[in-house]
Structure formats: structure tokens, C-alpha cells
Fold Secreted protein.
Amino acid sequence: MIRKIALSVAILAFGVAPALAASSHYYVEHAPNSNKCSVVPKRPDGKAAMAVGSSHKTKALAEAAMKSAAACM
């Protein structure tokens, strides 16, 4: 019984981990048409908007980078 529970927890943990890891980076996105910047959880594709700098681990770090980026002023 304990083995079944432990195995179930392990399988669940491996299934949930990629979903949590996918949203752990934030990017500063610059829209060239409107000259506005925003923080997004997905990397911009480079067609409609460009990424400013690299990825950030938290949304707060991305917002701080957005405020100091020359393209966003």
C-alpha cells in the first residue's frame, strides 16, 4: 500500500514539474509599432514584438529591468 502511494506521488511530481518550470521565466517585450514595453511569461517571437534583454526568474525582476531598459523609456 505504501509503495503504491509513493509511486503515485513520484509520478505526479514528475508530471507537474515541467508545467511549473515552463512558467518560471519572464521576458520584457517591446512592441515596435506602439513603442510600449510589457512583461510576458513567454519569449516574444520576434515578428510582432521583440525581447529586450534576457529572461528573468521572477516577474518583479522583469519589471525592474523594464523600467531601466533604454528601449522602454
In short: The longest strand covers residues 50-56.
